[in-house]
């Protein structure tokens, strides 16, 4: 494993899929280079603009033909990722495809088929780390998307790492998070202490871990409003207009003056410039813009559905429960449409300004009241920035009215410039200056990037994953992830990688060798040197004594079976002989010949050697005599092939040949043979044969006789 760890996240939205690549230092490298402040911070996640790529359309468009999602869609994204992730790090790089609103509306069968194809294609064409497809490839709920966004925003703003520098009062240092897409909107924030205690069952418990292993724990409220994204809100608005009148031409205050647009009964715009060959639906009516923004605000207010019954008070919109928000300490950042609609349309000279309700409403009112022809001329001249085209200019009036209503009448963000924010703000000069630098002193600020890094929920996912890879300070430490707000690990707890990560300390042999295989040869060399030096220090006699002790220990462990006992002698004998394999001091294993059973077992073992052990033969073709290489009392006689008489290399006919045969057997020259041992062995052999007359030993003696 190298210095850097990598992670790949595919954000599968309704209009397209975007690949994000992130990297961070592995924990060992991060700790070596970290200062004290960095040790108490979360891992530093890096990314680059060129590491991101988006393609259209979204994977939800492959519901009818899921087998094409791999070659026609994923292939481009995975190829892009493989360009920037080092080849040797690919197997260690987790891959996630997390789908949002677009896939949520697909039928269950189609959704499953598309996700299965995504996983199969990724596994078959790449080596990215993909152990559990149910976790790595899935449709995430809006609440999870909002929680990831909350992590990303606070990570980039420093709410986690430098809480003292972001003290909003009452011990509160984190920021709230607002996200709005085309289909849904999310909110995530940490309530103040009073509300957190009152609504503890509604909160999500989230745990992170800093570089030095210190745990961080937060209790966050997060919810999603389906159908409250700008596109679906627009469709609900148009449907309401159609239902209000049977006329084919309807005035619309949310369109620039004199702009005419045809719409379907589903509330969608019909684009006159669409060159698609597919048959177009019949227009239900034509909307004529009046450019009256104040009337647009009034007509979009009912879309909040604040009149719905609140089953669990308090509620904000759509009858959905949300704990009371203390805007003295809860400062929110908004992304996606909150940014595009409040800043992008007025890009020149305003993109770095904080959101000001009064100023913003004045600018939108001025824009929407213009005649459409004048707006078209301004677009061609780039008056509102290079990103503003006719489609965005046509939609901005409704989007602006919807954003304003959601923020102020829905969520309750104070109208900066009009409403008094009240007391309770920490107004120390250091905090004010710090907030002014980033523009986050107000209750709401729309953002796109912080420190040149895009505020994306995919970043929050990777922060959580990187944090989970940090070893815990102890075995009792709780895992990184999120779940219900209960002590310990709740049943619904979600681990960032799907399963708890297995951590090993630096003293763990498994971790030591698997992560550092280059250390293995050095380790064994070191062990050999230590044993060699130890052997020299002990001396010959102590080595033999230690060797014999180990032999006895191994023999006892192996039981009574002579084959096991004899084999057990090999390893310790070789280990402690330390080059003394040629020594004449042989230790023989003793057998109590007065014990009939033990003697019988030993004789059977000799027969086994004679009949089956090919290594004991000195004949190249296997036809020669087989000699059991045993020791002590059990050493058999060697029969000369020339005379057929037993001989221990004495004076026999053809003695030269016998000597040659003896040398071939590796038994050494006759001059080294101890004749006193010869007599005692021959005598012992006779004793064995004489005792073989017992009926219970006939079988064993027959084998020896043979």
From TrEMBL:
One Gene Ontology term, aspect cellular component: membrane
Pfam families: GDA1_CD39
Sequence intervals crossing the membrane: 520-539
Sorted UniProt keywords: ATP-binding, Hydrolase, Membrane, Nucleotide-binding, Transmembrane, Transmembrane helix
Record region (Disordered): 612-706
Family affiliation: Belongs to the GDA1/CD39 NTPase family.
Protein name as catalogued: Golgi apyrase
GO molecular function: ATP binding; GDP phosphatase activity; ribonucleoside triphosphate phosphatase activity; UDP phosphatase activity
Any single biological process term in GO: UDP catabolic process
Organism from which the protein derives: Decorospora gaudefroyi
Catalytic residues (positions): 145 (proton acceptor)
Signal peptide: none
Superkingdom per UniProt: Eukaryota
Bias-annotated ranges (Polar residues): 632-650
Keyword ATP-binding: yes
Residues given in the record as ATP binding sites: 182-186
InterPro entries for the chain: GDA1_CD39_NTPase
Basic residues: compositionally biased ranges: 690-700
Coiled-coil region list: none
């Amino acid at each position: 494993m190298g210095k850097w760890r990598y992670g790949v996240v595919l954000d599968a939205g309704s209009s397209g899929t975007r690949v994000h690549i992130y990297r961070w230092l592995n924990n060992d490298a991060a700790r070596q280079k970290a200062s004290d402040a960095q040790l108490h911070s979360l891992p530093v996640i890096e990314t680059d603009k060129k590491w991101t790529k988006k393609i259209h359309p979204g994977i939800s468009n492959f519901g009818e033909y899921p087998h094409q999602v791999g070659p026609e869609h994923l292939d481009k994204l995975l190829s892009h990722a493989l360009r920037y992730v080092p080849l040797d790090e690919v197997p260690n790089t987790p891959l996630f495809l997390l789908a949002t609103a677009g896939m949520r509306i697909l039928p269950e069968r189609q959704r499953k088929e598309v996700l299965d194809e995504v996983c199969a294609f990724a596994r078959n064409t790449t080596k990215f780390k993909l152990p559990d497809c149910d976790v790595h490839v899935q449709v995430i709920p809006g609440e999870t998307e909002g929680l990831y966004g909350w992590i990303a925003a606070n990570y980039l703003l420093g709410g986690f790492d430098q809480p003292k520098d972001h003290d909003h009062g009452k011990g509160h240092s984190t920021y709230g998070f607002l996200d709005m897409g085309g289909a849904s909107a999310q909110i995530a924030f940490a309530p103040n202490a009073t509300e957190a205690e009152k609504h503890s069952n509604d909160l999500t418990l989230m745990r992170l871990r800093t570089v030095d292993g210190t745990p961080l724990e937060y209790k966050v409220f997060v919810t999603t409003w389906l159908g409250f994204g700008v596109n679906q809100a627009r469709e609900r608005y148009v449907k309401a207009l159609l239902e209000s009148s049977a006329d084919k031409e309807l005035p619309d205050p949310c369109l620039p003056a004199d702009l005419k647009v045809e719409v379907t009964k589903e509330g969608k715009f019909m684009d006159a410039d669409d060159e698609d060959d597919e048959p177009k639906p019949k227009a239900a009516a034509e909307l004529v813009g009046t450019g009256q923004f104040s009337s647009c605000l009034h007509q979009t207010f009912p879309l909040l559905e604040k009149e719905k019954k609140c089953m669990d008070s308090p509620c904000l919109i759509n009858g959905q429960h949300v704990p009371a928000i203390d805007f003295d300490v809860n400062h929110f950042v908004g992304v996606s449409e909150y940014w595009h609609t409040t800043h992008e349309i007025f890009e020149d000279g305003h993109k770095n300004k904080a959101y000001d309700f009064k100023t913003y409403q004045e600018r939108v009112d001025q824009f929407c009241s213009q005649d459409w022809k004048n707006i078209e001329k301004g677009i061609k001249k780039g008056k509102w920035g290079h990103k503003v085209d006719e489609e965005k200019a046509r939609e901005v009036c409704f989007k602006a009215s919807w954003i304003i209503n959601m923020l102020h009448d829905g969520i309750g963000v104070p109208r900066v410039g009009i409403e008094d924010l009240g007391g309770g703000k920490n107004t120390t000069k250091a905090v004010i200056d710090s907030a002014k630098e980033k523009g986050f002193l107000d209750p709401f600020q729309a953002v796109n990037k912080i420190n040149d890094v895009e505020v994306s929920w995919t970043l929050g996912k990777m922060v959580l994953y990187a944090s989970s890879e940090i070893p815990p300070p102890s075995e009792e430490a709780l895992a990184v992830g999120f779940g219900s707000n209960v002590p310990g690990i709740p049943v619904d707890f979600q681990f960032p990688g799907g399963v708890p990560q297995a951590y090993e300390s630096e003293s763990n042999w498994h971790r030591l060798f698997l992560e550092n295989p280059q250390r293995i040869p050095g380790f064994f060399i070191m062990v050999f040197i230590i044993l060699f030096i130890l052997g020299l220090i002990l001396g010959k006699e102590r080595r033999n004594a230690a060797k014999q002790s180990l032999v006895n220990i191994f023999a006892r462990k192996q039981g009574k079976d002579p084959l096991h006992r004899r084999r057990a002698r090999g390893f310790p004998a070789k280990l402690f002989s330390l080059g003394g394999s040629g020594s004449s001091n042989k230790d023989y294993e003793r057998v109590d010949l007065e014990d009939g059973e033990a003697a019988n077992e030993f004789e059977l073992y000799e027969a086994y050697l004679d009949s089956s052990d090919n290594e004991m033969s000195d004949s190249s073709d296997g036809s020669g005599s087989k000699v059991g290489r045993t020791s002590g009392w059990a050493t058999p006689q060697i029969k000369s092939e020339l005379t057929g008489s037993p001989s221990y290399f004495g004076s026999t006919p053809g003695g030269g040949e016998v000597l040659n045969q003896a040398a071939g057997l590796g038994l050494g020259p006759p001059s080294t043979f101890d004749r006193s041992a010869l007599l005692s062995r021959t005598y012992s052999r006779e004793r064995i044969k004489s005792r073989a007359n017992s009926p219970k030993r006939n079988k064993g003696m027959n084998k020896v006789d043979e």
